[in-house]
Design a protein that fits this description.
mainly alpha, 6 helices
Amino acid sequence: MSLEKNQPNPYLTLCQVAGSCILAGAAFGAVSNMIDGAISPYYFKTVMHWDFPDIWTAAVSQGLFEGLIYGTIFSIIFTTGFGLITKGKAGYGFAFTQLLKTIGFIGICWLCGGLFAILLTSINPDFYRKLFPITPKDGIEMLKFAWTGGSIWGGMIGGLLSSFLAVVMLKNRWLQSQETEE
């Protein structure tokens, strides 16, 4: 396989894309748990059964670890889709732009999950406590707990959806770019 002068090395590009996906997952997990851990350490203490002083650091580490796992799974799907769709003809920048859109989508899902849980808790706290019996009784602590749980679930659902939507968006964007070149 010979490459033209300006054509990117497809193998190097695939490695860059895969690595970026994994690092993006780790970064998103760490940052989202930085926020969630600061808002409700009680959530992590209760849900994770953690009983030690520095819950926040453990929450960030947990987010980093889970982000690496989810990022690796996403990387396999996205990088495979990228390679098959573009047939090695697209550069890293093309994939990175699509990856940024995907991270934005996951962030919106994370935010919506937290807001939805707060809304549910505000409208009907008794129902929320029945759904999640470990919820604190104090109103503010209950809202913090709801935000944290809701945002985590929102991020996970967003990650799952984005695994498929990112490939669809990638394909559509690639087809558009090919049409404009012709």
